[in-house]
Amino acid sequence: MNSLFGEGTRLARRDAMRMGAWASLAALVPADFARAEPAGDASMRNIAQFMARCVGPGKYPGLVCSLGLPGQQTRFALRGDEGFTDADPVTPDSLFRIYSMTKPITGMAAMMLVAEGKLGLDQPLADILPRFARMQVQVTPDGPLGDVRPAKSPILIRHLMTHTAGLGYVIVQQGPLRKAYADAGLVAGRVTRLSIPGISVEPSISSLEAFADKLAELPLVYDPGTQWSYSVGLDLLGRVIEVVSGEPFDQFLQRRLFEPCGMTSTWFQVPRSEAHRLTTNYGAIGENLFPIDRGSDSIFLDKPAFPFGGSGLVSSPRDYDRFLTMLANYGLAGGTRVMSEAAVRAGTGNLLPPGVLASTVLGPPCHFGAGGRVGIGAEAGIFGWAGAAGTVATVDMRHGVRSSIFVQFMPPTSSQLLRDYQTALRADVQASFTRS
Questions:
Q1: Which of 320, 377, 263, 330 lies closest to 70 in space, CA to CA?
Q2: Which residues, listed in sequence order, are joined to residue 64 by a DSSP beta bridge?
Q3: Helices 233-245 & 208-216, crossing angle to 10 degrees?
Q4: How many beta carbons lie within 10 A of that of residue 326, not counting itself?
Q5: What does the domain layout of the chain look like in residue ranges?
Q6: Is the peptide bond before 411 cis (omega within 30 degrees of 0)?
Q7: Which of 3, 90, 149, 425 has its CA 20 to 30 A from that of 176?
C-alpha cells in the first residue's frame, strides 16, 4: 500500500482523479444480455471468494457487496466487522462514509428541478447566484493568483453537474489557488479529528450561502465549458438547489429523495443513537491500516459546517441500493414516482458540453452525467461514481443491474481491492445469465 500521509496533497489529487476508474465496469453484462434471462437466483460465489481473501487480521475488517438483477431482490454479501476493534458484524444497514457518492444524489436532486422547469441545464449560474456574473480565469492553471483574465463564457448549470465549470478543488489544485481555497475555508468535506498533514478537519465557513459567496471571489482554473476538471461544482449546486427550491438543501433531499425512496439511514450528520452502526474509517500506511475516524466518536456525529453536496453523506448499503433501484426503474420507488422518467434518462446520460470529454484518468473513454460517470462502448448504459473511502456504486440503466461495494479505507488506490472486486463482480453477473 501507499501512504496517505506521507505524500500529502499530490496523492489526494491522484486518487480524486481516479474515482471514475473505480466505477468503470467494462463488459459487466454479456453482449447478448438482451437475449438472456436470469438463471435462477443471482449467485455471488466469486464475490464471496473475493471477500474471504480480503477480510481478516492484517487485511480489512469488513466488506459489504450488493448485486441486484432485474426483477429480483437485491442480494448482499457480508463478511467481517464494522472495525478491527468493533465486534459488531457488518450488515446491509451498517453505516459508511460515502463521500463523493453524494455527488450523484445531488445531481439527481437538481435534475428534479430541471424537469419541473424551475432550473435549466443551460441556464447561467449568475441568474441564480449573481456574484458569479463576471468570473476571472487563471491564465496558467494553478499559476499565480494575480495573473487572470475575464472568463470567455458564463458558468452554466450543466457545468456544475459535470465538473466543467472551471472551479477548483482543494484536493486537486496545487500552488497558490489551493492555498487560497484553504485560507478562505473552501474545504468541502471532512475526514478526521486527527491532525494529519494535507487533510483539513473542518472548513471555517458555516453555510452554503457563505461558501458560494467566497467561491465567487476566487478565479476559475479553466474557462467554463472547455475542460473536465474535478471540482466543488456539486457542492455549489447544493446552494443552487436551496435558492431555487426555497428550502435548505438538506431538507430538500430529505423530503424529495430520501423519504420517498425509503432511505432511512442517509444523513449529513449521523444521529448519536445510530453511532453503533457506524463503521471505522482507516488510513493506509505502508501495508497497515490505522483508524482515522472511529464509529463511536466519528466526526460525522457532529453537525457539519454545511451540507456538502459533493462529499458529505453517510449511508448504508441498503439505502444506497434503494437510490440505485429508483434510477434503474426510471424514477419509481415501489409505487411512488420520485423523479420523472425524462429526468432520470437525462441525468444518467451525457450532459457534457459539446466537444468536451471526461478526463482520460477516469479509465476507459466515458461521458459524464448528473454527478456521475456515464459509460460508452462496452460500458454503455452504466452510470455511477465512487467515494474517497472505498465505496463504489453503479447502475446499468439498459439492463437494470445494480451493484456496490462498501468498505472504509483511504486512499482507495492504495491496494488492488477495488480492481479485484470488479473482476469478481463481472464474473458473477455473467454467470447469472444464460441464453434463452
A1: 330
A2: 78, 406
A3: 120
A4: 25
A5: 8-106+248-435, 120-232
A6: yes
A7: 3
Taking only the tens place, the pLDDT of each residue in 317-361 is 999 999 999 999 999 999 999 999 999 999 999 999 999 988 766
CB of 299 within 8 A of CB of 78?
A: no
Q: What spatial distance separates the first Cα and last Cα of the chain, rounded to whole Å? A: 44
Return all residues near 272 (Cβ < 8 A) that are at least 6 apart: 301
Grid coordinates representing 116 are 419541473
Q: How many residues does the chain have?
A: 436
Q: Which fold has domain 8-106+248-435?
A: Beta-lactamase (3.40.710)
Place of cell 441464453: 435
Q: Which are the contacts of 97, defined by CB distance < 8 A and separation ≥ 6?
A: 279, 281, 293, 300, 314, 387, 389, 391, 408
Which sign does the torsion angle of CA 108, 348, 418, 8 carry?
A: negative
Is 327 in contact with 348 (CB distance < 8 Å)?
yes
C-alpha cell at 250: 438538506
Task: Compute the distance between CA of residue 278 and CA of residue 90 in angstroms, rounded to an integer.
Answer: 10
Report residue 35 as a C-alpha cell. 437475449
Distance of CA 50 to the CA centre of its chain: 24
